[in-house]
Amino acid sequence: MDVSSDPYLPYDGGGDNIPLRELHKRGTHYTMTNGGSINSSTHLLDLLDEPIPGVGTYDDFHTIDWVREKCKDRERHRRINSRKKESAWEMAKSLYDAWSGWLVVTLTGLASGALAGLIDIAADWMTDVKEGICLSALWFNHEQCCWGSNEATFEERDKCPQWKTWAELIIGQAEGPGSYIMNYIMYIFWALSFAFLAVSLVKVFAPYACGSGIPEIKTILSGFIIRGYLGKWTLMIKTVTLVLAVASGLSLGKEGPLVHVACCCGNIFSYLFPKYSTNEAKKREVLSAASAAGVSVAFGAPIGGVLFSLEEVSYYFPLKTLWRSFFAALVAAFVLRSINPFGNSRLVLFYVEYHTPWYLFELLPFILLGVFGGLWGAFFIRANIAWCRRRKSTKFGKYPVLEVIIVAAITAVIAFPNPYTRLNTSELIKELFTDCGPLESSSLCDYRNDMNASKIVDDIPDRPAGTGVYSAIWQLCLALIFKIIMTVFTFGIKVPSGLFIPSMAIGAIAGRIVGIAVEQLAYYHHDWFIFKEWCEVGADCITPGLYAMVGAAACLGGVTRMTVSLVVIVFELTGGLEYIVPLMAAVMTSKWVGDAFGREGIYEAHIRLNGYPFLDAKEEFTHTTLAADVMRPRRSDPPLAVLTQDNMTVEDIENLINETSYNGFPVIMSKESQRLVGFALRRDLTIAIESARKKQEGIVGSSRVCFAQHTPSLPAESPRPLKLRSILDMSPFTVTDHTPMEIVVDIFRKLGLRQCLVTHNGIVLGIITKKNILEHLEQLKQHVEPLAPPWHYNKKRYPPSYGPDGKPRPRINNVQLKPIAEEREETEEEVHLLNSTTL
């Protein structure tokens, strides 16, 4: 197994440091079902008198052992329950352990809500700083500055004497070309300043603070270890730079990174409770709840956050995690509502209410918006992944600061002339979602009043579009093209960058344009058969804001391939409970169209691009390969390195560790037998031998190492033997060489395995690790023939037990050696491969 050519290193799914399978005073029997479907109640481990320091932890870029971690938690729970009746102190410890899960998610929800409120307030203020400043109160943004002004008019409610643009402050002009140019220059200056400060902080203090964070969180929740990704420095820098990145005007959002921020809070608070700090599997339950809290405060959607955690990011989601996720989302939403960052008594900025129902004929444009969302998602995923791959493979990726400055400069220069691209993206979505009422002064609501309407059914009936509406449509078309192009190049740069809001903005722009078109079509052709039944003259029939909401959901669904959680998030986001059916139709259509071009969402695509060892449970394995086709070693590889149960010395094992880079070694009975005894990990062997040399007298290089239960008899002059049965996994998961890979992949996904041994009649043939499966899946995706023989070749590896003459065939190590005549060459080659695995 040549690890130097492994594309998944250093992201090693196998891990070289699987810790001891049990803690001190572990029960002696353990029942489990291995990969070969053999039930065994076996003595899992002989325990050490004292635990070895360093055992029980994981190295960076390695995968946890879910089975071992669950065993540890069950033993801890049994130990606490057995002691709680001994004293009042033990009872208090038992109650503290039982409530620690609720305490940690409560703290996570409180911190997530508080940080989200802080980010929202700071981002709004800094976004307005690009255009001017409030002289009466520097900490007020533009809207707050004009709230108490008596000079502000209804038509120009954003203009008041207290708010000064940079042109008024610098050159003393509020109107004219000079004022426009000065405001243009200051807009670009502040945008570049914010972007440069953000990327500099990320590069110097916390490189993990860049990006969305959701692909890495999905990988971490699947059991992968990325040290520092959820640490305090990452939390601090991501919180600060997220504000700067949003304020710079880049085509990104803060909603995705808020999930990362919430998971950082959950990870930090989990270290306060031993139940979670010492168990990586239990810690991931907290992170699942934290991701729900992150979506709750990002969109003001507590239920949607729980469903997002369940559908999109969580790998292991038991029922108690569902309850705690719900509670964490509730606490986070309550804190954010208490802070009221938007000043509208809502959890989100663009909460809207529509007063007109939707009609059946509108399902057609809703489905068309779903088609557009699916096409946009497929295009974005391919274009963004191609650009990110080019960034990784060229010199351009070595200058992240320059890339951010270039993208920010292009964005600012193009965005300022268009009022819809100059707006904060959340403000743009709010305006697009809003229905045109009597209090709206936007150009999108510049309709001509039709005095010839014969019947007034509604207060504000459908009306012919005015010049302001047509001008806004052209500006929205330009904004749509701008957003599509810039989002492709912005997502993935080295600043915190979310994808939810840019995707929703693209869909909202497209939806609003379609909504206005359908509205005008219904007005001028109300006698058509599709409009005749519902759209009477003077009736308020079409709501363009609803089309914007449906388009936003469709485009976000096309990019992320979310379904249930997305629909719930959008109706919580907008209060549009009545419009669930249009949302479901558009989101489902976008997913079907997107899946026609590729089943991966953007997060799965970035996981694969970065080479993380993530087995997606949504993928189906439909190929006919067998375990023998994927196992290592291959024919061209060195023989499988194994340990014998009681025939090796300390020096032999140390030489084997130094000469190889394998992460673990099967333990067999003897070189002749090759029967499997267990599995020992490289890290465990190293730590155990070092500890024995320091703490036990007489342990030298020639000391016999014994993995058996009883030490064999040795000559009197022999040095003291070293018993290492305690670090031996006596029940490694095994499959036979003819097990279909469909079953093997399913075992790895559902049990979270890192490696699995391949045997034939109890004889070890090879090993399959998580990275071997990922390599095999990647080969199949690229339509590359696997290195192993085809499946039908393996059917003939072992001849029948009896020959043509009816006599039993001779065996060595329980493997028939005499081949059938017409298959002699092939079978001898296979037997040679089997024999070459001996040491």
Automatic annotation (TrEMBL):
* A family per Pfam: CBS
Answer yes or no on keyword Glycoprotein.
yes
Classify the main location: membrane
Q: How does it sit in the membrane?
A: Multi-pass membrane protein
Q: Where does the chain cross the membrane? A: 99-123, 187-209, 229-250, 257-274, 286-310, 359-381, 401-420, 472-493, 505-526, 546-571
Keywords for this protein: Antiport, ATP-binding, CBS domain, Cell membrane, Chloride, Endosome, Glycoprotein, Ion transport, Lysosome, Membrane, Nucleotide-binding, Repeat, Transmembrane, Transmembrane helix, Transport
Domain spans labelled CBS: 631-695, 728-787
**What SMART domains would the database entry show?**
CBS (SM00116)
CDD domains xrefs: CBS_pair_voltage-gated_CLC_euk_bac (cd04591), ClC_3_like (cd03684)
User: Which sequence ranges form a coiled-coil region, renumbered to this chain?
Assistant: none
Show the InterPro entries listed in the entry.
CBS_dom (IPR000644), CBS_dom_sf (IPR046342), Cl-channel_core (IPR014743), ClC (IPR001807), ClC3 (IPR002245)
Question: Looking at the record, which segments are called Disordered?
Answer: 820-839
The record's GO CC annotations read:
early endosome membrane; Golgi apparatus; late endosome membrane; lysosomal membrane; plasma membrane; synaptic vesicle
UniProt KW Methyltransferase keyword: no
Q: Where in the cell is it found?
A: Cell membrane; Early endosome membrane; Late endosome membrane; Lysosome membrane
Q: Which GO terms describe its molecular function?
A: ATP binding; chloride:proton antiporter activity; voltage-gated chloride channel activity
In terms of superkingdom, the source organism counts as Eukaryota
- Known function: Strongly outwardly rectifying, electrogenic H(+)/Cl(-)exchanger which mediates the exchange of chloride ions against protons. The CLC channel family contains both chloride channels and proton-coupled anion transporters that exchange chloride or another anion for protons. The presence of conserved gating glutamate residues is typical for family members that function as antiporters.
The record's comment on protein family reads: Belongs to the chloride channel (TC 2.A.49) family. ClC-3/CLCN3 subfamily.
Q: By what name is this protein known?
A: Chloride channel protein
* Organism per entry: Pelusios castaneus
Where is the organism placed in the taxonomic lineage, from the top? Eukaryota, Metazoa, Chordata, Craniata, Vertebrata
